[in-house]
Amino acid sequence: MYYYSFMSSRMKELVDPFQLVERQAVIEDVYAVSDLERVRAAVFDTGGEFKVRLAFHRDAARHGVIVGHLTGTVTLQCQRCLEAMALDLDIRPQLGLCTSEAEAERLPDELEPLIVGDAPLNIREVVEDEILLALPIVARHARACGQVAAADPEGPADEDTRRPFRDLRKMLDEGE
Length: 176
Ligand SMILES: [Zn+2]
Prior knowledge:
Distance between the termini: 67 Å
Radius of gyration: 24 Å
Helix content: 25-40%
Bound molecules: zinc ion
Number of helices: 8
Structural class: alpha+beta
Number of domains: 1
Mean pLDDT: 84
């Protein structure tokens, strides 16, 4: 049974995008970062998942369009302090389907060309591409990196929160 469901979910990812445009189909799925091979190779920690919605339609100029919405969090490595850094992504691509480079060049600027040939379109690859394009070239904590160190229990933290029972010995001694 597991094998069957695995197969069917893999098959579902290979689609004919033009057919989906005619049907005005909407694909909604959730992808674990650990299942996105190329994203996994680019992040510091492979936890987390992405919610993905892809809506297919034909616009007023007759272009086949995929309006996407991908949300999720990736963990990158801050290039300043080398600690983990969570980055929330909210990606809203507008992809214009084309069958050739020439057609891609004629697309309006607001559409990002997605060239598809005779082979089916692999939805997982589209999801990977969009996440990779949204990653910063150099990841750095937005604010001071030291904030991470302050949360470290071994750091120069507040004695009262670190050792709530430090007076216990004294209290016991006084009780005798
Ligand atoms: Zn940092």
